[in-house]
Design a protein that fits this description.
Blueprint lengths: L3 H4 L7 H24 L4 H18 L3 H4 L2 H30 L12 H20 L2 H11 L5 H8 L3 H23 L4
Helix pairs in contact: 2-3, 2-5, 3-5, 6-9, 7-9, 8-9
């Protein structure tokens, strides 16, 4: 992988400084990349930010800051980049919240038409369920209203699991067909 250390103009760094920065890069690139990954960056984003860290360090051209504690210094630069990103995202989110037009948001209140339609659908479903044979209706209600598993229904009613699954399927299809016949609309 080519790094930005070697892509800087040759006249900005002495050969010795360039070698120094390249050695620091080799030693700490995985540490810095890991730091960004732990802060929620994707691998590609972490690699981009790694390059930004080294670009900032090289642009300052103060190798003495790296001599005693290079890892700590590089991590402090990386921390500043994470903070910059957080601030930028926070500003963008704040702006997005301010841009929301609260007067034009849809209301969650049910309209009289929706309430009537829901009541009609519920009545239709109740009628369809009442037309089912008792065992199929019971299995369907145990599954849908009580949230029981097919295995639990099978055990409770002492019928095979495959029968429970078949009853559920048949009851569901019956209710769907009944709704389509009655309303002409698929749910």
């Amino acid at each position: 992988m080519a790094n930005k250390c070697t892509s800087l103009p040759q006249n900005t760094l002495t050969r010795e400084s360039q070698q120094f920065y390249e050695e620091i890069y080799r030693q700490y690139n995985s540490v810095i990349t890991g730091f960004f990954r732990r802060h929620g960056y994707t691998q590609d984003e972490a690699l981009d930010e790694l390059q930004n860290v080294y670009f900032r360090v090289i642009r300052q051209n103060q190798p003495e800051k790296l001599v005693d504690t290079p890892k700590a210094y590089l991590l402090s630069v990386a921390t500043n980049l994470v903070r910059d990103r957080y601030r930028r995202e926070h500003r963008q989110n704040q702006q997005a919240r301010e841009d929301v037009d609260l007067d034009n948001l849809p209301t969650l209140e049910a309209s009289p038409e929706n309430t009537l339609q829901l009541a009609q659908q519920m009545l239709l479903m109740k009628q369809a369920l009442m037309e089912l044979p008792e065992k199929k209706r019971k299995v369907f209600l145990m599954k849908r209203l009580e949230g029981m598993t097919c295995k639990a229904i099978s055990d409770k009613l002492n019928i095979p699991l495959r029968t429970v699954e078949r009853y559920l399927s048949e009851a569901f299809v019956y209710c769907q067909v009944r709704a389509i016949k009655e309303t002409g609309v698929k749910n």
